[in-house]
Design a protein that fits this description.
Layout: H1 13-18, H2 22-37, H3 43-57, H4 60-63, H5 75-90, H6 96-102, H7 108-130
Length: 136
């Protein structure tokens, strides 16, 4: 049972919690769709980053799909997952050298997308964690 009751607005339990304020739900969902339907980054890369963040951010609902696949042969995915772990555990150490490493695999457009995806996903997962949202 989550920390507050579900609203009647929204398609998923997460959305039903946000649905207490329909404007926030509408805009949150629109931004989420933009991350998953648009952008330069591969969907599998985003999924592995999302999974990494889920365990660091403590959202049980988000952890339901499992941990990130650690045996990555794709160097972009490995670097993105490593960046997500750095963000979770040592975000104060993210500096210019971090971005220099990211530039070895990513364009600046991709770096901006990765950083905004990490921040948005963290906000979503922190919401799920604070609301004690559990997997169905």
């Amino acid at each position: 049972m989550p920390s507050i009751s579900y609203s009647s607005t929204g398609d998923t339990p997460f959305q039903q919690l946000l649905g207490h304020n329909e404007q926030i739900l509408k805009n949150w969902t629109k931004l989420e769709q933009s991350f998953y339907q648009d952008g330069e980054l591969d969907g599998d890369l985003k999924e592995q980053v999302r999974r990494t963040l889920a365990f660091g951010n403590g959202c049980k609902y988000c952890q339901a799909k499992g941990k990130a696949v650690m045996d990555q042969k794709d160097s972009k995915i490995s670097l993105a997952v490593g960046f997500a772990e750095l963000f979770l555990n040592h975000r104060s150490s993210i500096n210019q050298a971090t971005f220099d490493v990211l530039r070895q695999e990513f364009s600046e457009t991709e770096i901006a997308e990765l950083c905004s995806f990490v921040c948005f996903t963290t906000a979503s997962q922190m919401f799920g964690a604070i609301m004690d949202l559990q997997p169905e």
